[in-house]
Amino acid sequence: MHFHLSNTVYSWHKLIGSQCLRLSQLCVRIPIIGADLSKHYKPDREVYLTAASLLELQPSQIMMVAAHQDDLRAARGVGFRTAFVPRPKEGPNGEKNNTPDAAWDVVVPDFNALAAALGA
């Protein structure tokens, strides 16, 4: 199976446009899709459908990567693939439950493992 990998950020903040992120010595431009474009907030299904439409991709061509399982459930509900990457210290005292549901396509401990799992 061949994958084309790219990054897009969905933010509940208003759209601030395409941002330049510094990765080592590279400057990579990634699209940022703000909540104001869909007029909805995660985990509303319209958020994910708007993102797919703006990216001109079918939901099955998109993978939602998150530590919040409610977001992953909603993304999976519209046909996105899913990857769970826990944040061990999520919450003020690290009390968040990081036990993944069995339903996710990919479950990895960190982003390096995610990259390896996706063949990057």
Set down the secondary structure blueprint.
Blueprint: E1 9-11, E2 19-23, E3 26-30, E4 32-34, H1 35-38, H2 45-55, E5 63-66, H3 69-77, E6 81-84, E7 106-107, H4 111-117
Keywords for this entry:
alpha/beta; 22% strand; 120 residues; Rossmann fold; 4 helices; two-stranded parallel sheet; three-stranded parallel β-sheet
Structure commentary:
- The protein is built from four helices and seven strands.
- The longest helix is centred in the middle third of the chain and has 11 residues, at 45-55.
- The strands form three sheets. A three-stranded parallel beta sheet has the order 5-6-7, covered by helices on one side. A two-stranded parallel sheet has the order 1-4. Strands 2-3 form a two-stranded antiparallel sheet.
- The protein has one domain (9-117): 3-Layer(aba) Sandwich (Rossmann fold).
- The protein is of the alpha/beta class and 120 residues long.
- Strand 2 and strand 3 (26-30) form a beta hairpin.
- The chain starts with 8 loop residues before the first strand and ends with a helix.
Describe this structure in a few short sentences:
This protein is 26% helix and 22% strand.
Q: Can you identify the CATH class? A: Alpha Beta
Q: What is the CA–CA distance across the termini?
A: 13 Å
Oligomer: single chain
User: What do we call the CATH homologous superfamily?
Assistant: HAD superfamily/HAD-like
- Gyration radius (Cα, Å) is 15 Å
Number of DSSP-assigned strands: 7
Strand order of the largest sheet: 5-6-7
Shape, please?
Answer: globular
What is the CATH topology classification name? Rossmann fold
Helix content: 25-40%
* Broad structural category: alpha/beta
Strand content: 15-25%
Please give the domain count. Answer: 1
Main sheet attributes: strand count, strand direction, barrel closure: 3 strands, parallel
Give the low-pLDDT segments. Answer: 12-25
Tally of individual helices: 4
Which second-level CATH architecture applies?
3-Layer(aba) Sandwich
